[in-house]
Amino acid sequence: MLLMIDLSNRHTFKLPVQAQALLEITSSADCETLDWQAPFVIIGDGSNTIFLADYPGTVIVNRIKGIQITAQDDYVEVRAGGGENWHQLVSQLISKNIAGLENLALIPGTVGAAPVQNIGAYGVEVAAFINQVKAWDIKLQRWQYFDANACQFDYRNSLFKRHPGRWLVTEVIFRLPQQWQAQISYHGLDSLAADCTPQAIYERVIEIRNSKLPDPAQLPNAGSFFKNPVISVSQYQELTREFSNMPSYPVSADEVKVPAGWLIDQLGLKGYRFGGAAVHQQQALVLVNLHQASGDDVLCLARYIAAAVAEHYSIQLEPEVRLFDRQGQLLEQL
């Protein structure tokens, strides 16, 4: 099969791979006319996706745009097309003094990917602000609306992520409360004044992210490669007997979240390299394309890290990024 479409500029890790075809959809009507029987992959900005090998199918790019803002008594409703850039949406809302999403500034990707991944940062998850998701059901060939409960949101997870290739998110409807409360308890924001503005939080988040995370335009990467693992409180207490300074964040009465970057950093893996792929020197949670990396380089490096963490801490890391090879998406376990 002849592969003709270069994907290196369609995913921010910039591996030199190709696809059989590429198609951009710009309206909801496009979803109803596509041939969904052939192999396909859906992407947005490609910031949370790594193509490890040539893909013998069609890469479908969500470019559905449009933002509508309606103020109500208790909330502001924001309807955004799935192909809108996430950070640009957050920036536009902040410029209009519409608060709520400021903690999620500078997260790469599109609006359509936000509910799929249930993106989150600095103590806030997007699920808290989603009222509805409009999606095309590829299997049943019909439109569906999902309220927040139907989305089955979990930590970096959702109904859409659990069933890859089933739905294409074309629009997300947010409700941002008029009565705003600053979320600044997370490390890095806790030095802000209690009466700080949404603009101040927005600027601080951007400052922190820029200081910690490499710019994909300068050093190709896909952001946080691994999820922060969620473990039981009893397992965490057992681990702190040996690793007394292990940080954690409460998830529930029975579970805590442990920073994957800390686990990797404590193993001395910053800068560790396999072929052209490496662990970033400043942020251990980020893998980078240091020099002409191959898909095998990335996968071998990720598996080495996951195996080292499992051996040392008995914690299983899972990828946060979406990984695709010739057969399609690699799911969860490396």
From TrEMBL:
Question: Which PROSITE patterns is this protein grouped with?
Answer: FAD_PCMH
Which residues does the UniProt record annotate as the domain FAD-binding PCMH-type? 5-179
- Give the EC number: 1.3.1.98
- GO aspect biological process, one term: peptidoglycan biosynthetic process
User: Which Gene Ontology CC terms are recorded?
Assistant: cytosol
InterPro entries documented for this protein: FAD-bd_PCMH, FAD-bd_PCMH-like_sf, FAD-bd_PCMH_sub1, FAD-bd_PCMH_sub2, MurB, MurB_C, MurB_C_sf, Oxid_FAD_bind_N
| Catalytic activity entry | UDP-N-acetyl-alpha-D-muramate + NADP(+) = UDP-N-acetyl-3-O-(1-carboxyvinyl)-alpha-D-glucosamine + NADPH + H(+)
Location in the cell reads: Cytoplasm
Protein family: Belongs to the MurB family.
The free-text function statement in the UniProt record for this protein reads:
Cell wall formation.
Q: Which NCBIfam families match?
A: murB, PRK00046.1
Identification of the protein by name: UDP-N-acetylenolpyruvoylglucosamine reductase
Species of provenance: Idiomarina xiamenensis 10-D-4
Lineage of the organism: Bacteria, Pseudomonadati, Pseudomonadota, Gammaproteobacteria, Alteromonadales
Q: Coding gene? A: murB
